[in-house]
Every structure is written in C-alpha cells, then in structure tokens.
Amino acid sequence: MRWIDTHCHLDAPEFDPDRDGVVARAHAAGVALQVLPAVAVSNFETVRHLAHRHGLAYALGIHPLCVNDAAESDLAALHDALQRHRDDPRLVAVGEIGLDHFVPGLDQAKARHFYVEQLKLAHAAGLPVLLHVRRSADALLKQLRRIPVRGIAHAFNGSEQQAQVFIDLGFKLGFGGAMTFDRALQIRRLAETVPAESLVLETDAPDIPPHWLYRTAAERAAGETSRNEPAQLPRIAQTLADLRGWTPAQVADITWRNAQVALPRLAALAD
Q: InterPro entries from the entry (predicted)?
C-alpha cells in the first residue's frame, strides 16, 4: 500500500536531530509522498530544498499565525517565488494559508488581507491551496465564493454544513491524528460520513499526535515527548478504515487518488 501525507512540516526544529531518519521511517511505512507547506517567507527555500532532497512535494505560503510578523513585502516575495518556481513539478500548492480565530492576539484584519491576497496569487498561478481552518470556516468560505480556487481544508474540524460547502467548492477535507481520539466526536462523525471522494489523510507532523502518542501537560513537563511523524499515517488510516468499514487497502487507494485530484501536480510525482 502507498500513502500520501498531504500535510507535514518536515522542516520543523523538532526534526533537526533525525530528519533523514524520519523520512526513511516514512518510506518504510509506505508513505511514498509528503507535502511540505511553508509558513513564512523565511522557510520557502527550506521546504523547497527538503522536497528536492527527499523526492517530496512542497507548498509556498504565509501561515495565519505568522501574519502578525509579516510585511506587505512578504506577499511580493511569495509572488516572486511562485513565478520563479512555476515550472517546478514539486511545487504543488500555495500554503499553508488561511485564518485562525482560536489563538488570541492575532491581527484579524491583517490576516484577512493576507488570506485574500494569497488566494489571488494561487488563482493567478493556477495552484490549489492548503487551508488552515480553526474556528474560521465561515470566514474562509466567504472569500472562496469570490475567488475560485480549490485544494485541501487541512485538519478539518468544522460542522457538517461547512464541510458540505467546502466540498461543493471543490475542496478535499484533511483528517489526521485528531480523528484517532474517541472524544473527537464531530471529527470522527465527519470522517465516517462525508463522501469518500472528499477524504485525504495527513499527519501535520510534528503536531497533532494521534492518541497513542499523546502526552498530558504533566507528562510533557516531566520531559516526555509526543512528536508526530509521517510514518504514523498508516496507523492513523486504520482509524478511518474502522470508522468507514473499509479495509486499509481501500483507504490507501481512495485517499491516494483523492490527494492527486486535490493537488494535481502530485500525479506526476506519484508515477
């Protein structure tokens, strides 16, 4: 079975001690491709380099949690990078972009501006987007109705109604470690009921660890770690198989095809 991790921050400092080992373990687990989203101009070249070094894919964008520290010139830098690398087959999306209405202290007006401008850049470049959705689905959808782009709603945790609107607009929904928690009732309900052609898998590694890697605050304070890895994807996929009544092979086949529909440039890399 072959898997695609549609969202992995391989450049994160948590992977500095053993990044090559992380990639090797992913390949050994059948994770043939990973999509590495940028979060700021400062890591555009890092994710591009890692994608080329390890035979992976990457996206360029400015994360909503990084917008407070970004300048208007960063949007120009993103435009220039998208133009410079427009023929790079490993550049598969604009991302990670979006809105975050959970974290306090963010300049939401500035975040909306960056989100809209990045949607425009994606549309002009003919690229899909990787969307950060955290208590912000309606605000994201408002702009997507105006600017026709497609892509993946990463770590989706909205309502059934919001999920359907994203699907109607041509988006796939990303499911990962959060789905493995029994108490994540809404996410598990969505994973069980949304159309099969709307599902993709992700880890968001090193973040959103599945339940078997989760550590409490006290455990983390005592030095225990909960780093997620792309090699966890097949085990995460087993949860989806259990929820849907599918075999792991069915999950692999369905999500493999869906990822390539969401991010069309992945097809050539998968071959």
A: DNase_TatD-rel_CS, Metal_Hydrolase, TatD-like
Q: 265 with 259: CB under 8 angstroms?
A: no
Q: Please tell me the CATH code under which domain 3-270 is placed.
A: 3.20.20.140
| Residue tagged 């991302």 (tokens) | 95
Who contacts 237 (Cβ-Cβ below 8 Å, separation ≥6)?
A: 3, 201, 248, 251, 252, 255
C-beta neighbour count of 114 within 10 angstroms: 25
* Tens-level pLDDT at each residue, the chain (271 residues): 999 999 999 999 999 999 999 999 999 999 999 999 999 999 999 999 999 999 999 999 999 999 999 999 999 999 999 999 999 999 999 999 999 999 999 999 999 999 999 999 999 999 999 999 999 999 999 999 999 999 999 999 999 999 999 999 999 999 999 999 999 999 999 999 999 999 999 999 999 999 999 887 788 777 777 899 999 999 999 999 999 999 999 999 999 999 999 999 999 998 8
Distance CA 151, CA 216 (A): 33
**Tokens at residue 47, please?**
């994710």
| AA letter at 165 | V
| 8 contact partners, CB below 8 Å, separation of at least 6 | 34, 35, 36, 202, 203, 204, 205, 230
Domain definitions of the chain by residue range: 3-270
Cα-flanking dihedrals φ and ψ of residue 94, to 5°?
-105, 125
Q: Report the DSSP pairing between strands 151-154 and 171-175.
A: parallel
* 237: amino acid identity, one letter: A
Q: Which residues contact 57 (CB under 8 A, 6 or more apart)?
A: 33, 34, 35, 36, 51, 90, 91, 92, 263, 265, 266, 269
**Terminal-to-terminal C-alpha distance of the chain:** 14
